[in-house]
């Protein structure tokens, strides 16, 4: 048995030395030290040995097991080290080489315009309010002095979902909801940006979906001059300090009196050109004094409180400020167009 153990040791050490990978080493471990391995098979015959031989053979068997185990561990460590070195060589990265450019996106032009307008009005003490895009007929029309069958409803060709539900045609319902929530007990100074929807044919200047930003101020002793002063500050901040504004009479069911606001053309400085159709002025928004009936329907005493409201198209402001000639550019996701305004 002594000779058998020595022969197993020599055979195992030679085989382990020739192993070329971790799988081969694992196979050697099973072959010589496993439950059915060569060493285990020999040791099963120790019962036939005399009492004097057993300690000697037992000690030898332990020495052989330790020798084979150490050889397996050493070979495994060597193979792992060689594999790591090979990996490091094949995966070496030259950190001095220039990297791939990282393409960084930016804010959409409409988002930049919205944030710019919001910052301006927040600086003037306004709150930013939001409301649902799926609105009721009551808040979209009736609360704004547009009862059913009112002819002015035709001014806003509406997407109706049911007889009472619709896609809002303006952000004015947010104003109505805010006034109703305050129940005539406190002043209001707010703007409400958001998407609106109208049944319109898409072309260079029209879209069935667009964005509005409307403003509302309700307090004691509010006059039309307050509206004009506010819009004058807005025009100068958005289009340049040299811009002038003018108010023209108009009609909106929820304001009385109502006005359209024009800003002097920045291309010709009011002298007249093709951009302003040779008038020297460009229309940018509408507004007026809140109709007493609108105040009363929301719980405000129109003999004590007055207010003004205004509304502007976000796309129109962006088109005028940056010279965009087609509203569809905002929605077609053409990277060539959008990338021009990453710093806008």
From TrEMBL:
One of its GO terms (molecular function) is transferase activity. The keyword Magnesium applies. Keywords: Aminoacyl-tRNA synthetase, ATP-binding, Cytoplasm, Ligase, Magnesium, Metal-binding, Nucleotide-binding, Protein biosynthesis. Signal peptide: none annotated. It catalyses: tRNA(Phe) + L-phenylalanine + ATP = L-phenylalanyl-tRNA(Phe) + AMP + diphosphate + H(+). Binds 2 magnesium ions per tetramer. It is an enzyme of class 6 (ligase). Residues 73-340 form the Aminoacyl-transfer RNA synthetases class-II family profile domain. Pfam families: Phe_tRNA-synt_N, tRNA-synt_2d. It is found in: Cytoplasm. The keyword Transmembrane helix does not apply. Mg(2+) binds at residue 256. Its main location: cytoplasm. It comes from the Bacteria. GO terms for cellular component: cytoplasm. One of its GO terms (biological process) is phenylalanyl-tRNA aminoacylation. Its cofactor is Mg(2+). Its EC number is 6.1.1.20. InterPro entries: aa-tRNA-synth_II, aa-tRNA-synth_II/BPL/LPL, Phe-tRNA-synth_IIc_asu, Phe-tRNA_ligase_II_N, Phe_tRNA_ligase_alpha1_bac, Phenylalanyl-tRNA_Synthase, tRNA-bd_arm. Tetramer of two alpha and two beta subunits. Belongs to the class-II aminoacyl-tRNA synthetase family. Phe-tRNA synthetase alpha subunit type 1 subfamily. This is Phenylalanine--tRNA ligase alpha subunit. It comes from Oceanobacillus oncorhynchi. The gene is pheS.
